[in-house]
């Protein structure tokens, strides 16, 4: 094991998030990381693109004016070069971005661009994928490498999707153990004091 | 070995001569380099970490266009033998999305066209008006596309019969909202 720089390549927060110093995070005040999230170098997260539409105040409803642009759950892993970008559309004649919500135990592979509205728990997205605007990915979905998920697509639970444009090509086997999908292990292998992955 | 001060961007070469309209929005972490001129016309929006490179020719970005983060405009062609000298010219209302690459060499993109996430436009390609280059599609160098063409990810092409005006209006509304979220720092590039 080579000695790391004294300062460390990662910033570790109180809740155990490991954020690379080489990641580009914009609008950090509008991001909620759920704890034990890993953000690798060259990840770009656009927290500055917040919702501007009056937060359903005209139609009643929610009271808290949420300015959260991106929210993630626990044990998410964003590989090198990932771009997370809240989707935007015209809403009541005005353009507005909408918040992006990511569940627990979500893995996103290298150089994937995500503009989804919602990603459920235990989702695994391969590398070089494009997740279109306002796509909704439900729980335990697997998106294979290079898939282009079109805008507004809804992917049901336990699907495997692939292709350009992405289609459902199979089902995640029942009890195949997506429970942990190795993200806890992966979490401990990065950071300033990486553990040996074999342990 | 540790560097004294962390550099957030690549050590900049000589600044390219720029010609901005006063209504252009460009943040300080956009990357402009090269030796030829870079012209950006009015009300255009450049996102952080977009990269405009004028080493091989001048870059023109038309009015009310959007260049998103990590888009690269004016990169060196992959096939350098077939490359012709020249820069890149984008029309008005052009949207260049995340990770898109537009090679230099007299490349032209017509008004109202959208270059979607991760696609690549080859050197010298001439793309008509209101075209859509879908996500991760590739346009070969020197291709000439008629107006309102859609290039799909698998390389298929078809005509787009929708009216393009709605899309331009959307682009304009998007610019008007997002320009307030991005800190404009034109002076850095002058």
Defining traits:
heterodimer; A: 199 residues; mainly beta; UDP N-Acetylglucosamine Acyltransferase, domain 1; nine-stranded mixed beta sheet; six-stranded parallel beta sheet; 1 helix; B: 190 residues; seven-stranded parallel beta sheet; seven-stranded mixed beta sheet; 7% helix; Dynactin subunit 5 (chain A); cytoplasm (chain A); cytoskeleton (chain A); Trimer_LpxA-like_sf (chain A); DCTN5 (chain A)
Q: What secondary-structure arrangement, pairings included, does this model have?
A:
The complex is a heterodimer of chains A (199) and B (190).
Chain A: E1 10-12, E2 18-20, E3 24-26, E4 31-32, E5 38-39, E6 44-46, E7 70-71, E8 77-78, E9 83-84, E10 88-91, E11 94-97, E12 100-102, E13 107-108, E14 113-114, E15 118-119, E16 124-125, E17 130-131, E18 136-137, E19 142-143, E20 148-149, E21 154-155, E22 159-162, E23 167-171, H1 183-188
Parallel strand pairs in A: 2-5, 3-6, 4-7, 5-8, 6-9, 7-12, 8-13, 9-14, 12-15, 13-16, 14-17, 15-18, 16-19, 17-20, 18-21, 19-22
Antiparallel strand pairs in A: 1-2, 10-11, 22-23
Chain B: E1 18-20, E2 31-34, E3 38-40, E4 45-46, E5 51-54, E6 59-61, E7 66-67, E8 72-75, E9 88-90, E10 95-96, E11 101-103, E12 107-109, E13 114-115, E14 120-121, E15 126-127, E16 132-133, E17 138-139, E18 144-145, E19 149-151, E20 157-159, H1 165-178
Parallel strand pairs in B: 1-3, 2-5, 3-6, 4-7, 5-8, 6-9, 7-10, 8-11, 9-12, 10-13, 11-14, 12-15, 13-16, 14-17, 15-18, 16-19
Antiparallel strand pairs in B: 19-20
What does this structure look like?
Chain A is mainly β. Chain A has 1 helix and 23 strands. Chain A is globular and about 45 Å long. With 190 residues, chain B is mostly beta strands. In chain B, the strands form 3 sheets. In chain B, strands 1-3-6-9-12-15-18 form a 7-stranded parallel sheet, with no helix packed on it. Chain B has a 7-stranded mixed sheet with strand order 4-7-10-13-16-19-20. In chain B, strands 2-5-8-11-14-17 form a 6-stranded parallel sheet, with no helix packed on it. The model of chain B has no long low-confidence stretch (mean pLDDT 89).
